[in-house]
Amino acid sequence: MGNTVVVVPSEKNPLCATDMYQIFQTSDFPSGSVNIVTGNKDELSETLAMHMQVDGIWYFGSQEGSKKIEENSISNLKQTWVNNGVNYSWSNLPKEIKIKPLYKSTQIKNIWIPYGE
Fold first, then answer.
1. Phi, psi angles (nearest 5°) of residue 78
2. What is the pLDDT, as a whole number, of residue 70?
3. What residue spans define the domains of the chain?
4. What is the pLDDT of residue 2?
């Protein structure tokens, strides 16, 4: 089975994300590869952090919420990326921080293949 993304959109403006769902339905995305769950961000994020089938979680919210995510993800060594309550202005950030989502969203694995005698 492939990777699945669970998105918890903004509580104030969830319609942008739910409108994206129509685009996912009509595209070549495999069914179920993107799941949009609306509701209270902190409650849903905490549940996802404790879920054993979730491999990683990104959380952008309060410092208390970030701490809960980090604590609840320890049980299965889930990869996390939290902002610890710091709000970033993405348009004015240095390049090093702007490319951080690329590093956090990829995983490099080395495979050793012996050959010869």
1. -65, 140
2. 94
3. 5-87
4. 63
Q: In this predicted structure, what is the pLDDT of residue 63?
A: 93
The parts of the chain modelled with pLDDT lower than 70 are: 1-2, 117
Beta-bridged to residue 81, according to DSSP, are 58
pLDDT at 20: 86
Name the residue with tokens 């995510």. Answer: 69
Residue 50, burial from CB neighbour count under 10 angstroms (0-12, 13-18, 19+): middle
Residue 102 CA to its chain's centroid (Å) = 12
- Which DSSP string corresponds to 52-77? TT--EEEE-S-HHHHHHHHHHTGGGT
Helical axes 63-72 vs 41-50, angle rounded to 10° = 20
Q: In the chain, what are the helix, strand and coil shares in percent, each to the nearest 5?
A: 40, 10, 50
Angle at 25 between CA 22 and CA 28, to 5 degrees: 135
